[in-house]
Amino acid sequence: MFCLLVFRVRKLKETLVTVQQLDKNMSNLRTWLSRIEAELAKPVVYNVCHSDEIQRKLAEQQANSTDFACKVEFLVF
């Protein structure tokens, strides 16, 4: 009986640690999502219609897309 009690206490502690880690991860995801939403809400403005600036904006968009894809892949698996 005592062994069963010890086992249950250990499992509850493990579950608590897992839930705390999940809570931390969810908080990090909320922060990240807020940042991405703020980035996406900004209109794309070009100071000068020049190839270098267009390439820079495309690179920023690609970086955001890659970051987003990594987060989505993490959430799915």
TrEMBL record:
Keyword field: Membrane, Phosphoprotein, Repeat
Name used for this protein in its record: Uncharacterized protein
Record's subcellular location: Endomembrane system
PANTHER family recorded: NESPRIN-2, PKA ANCHORING PROTEIN
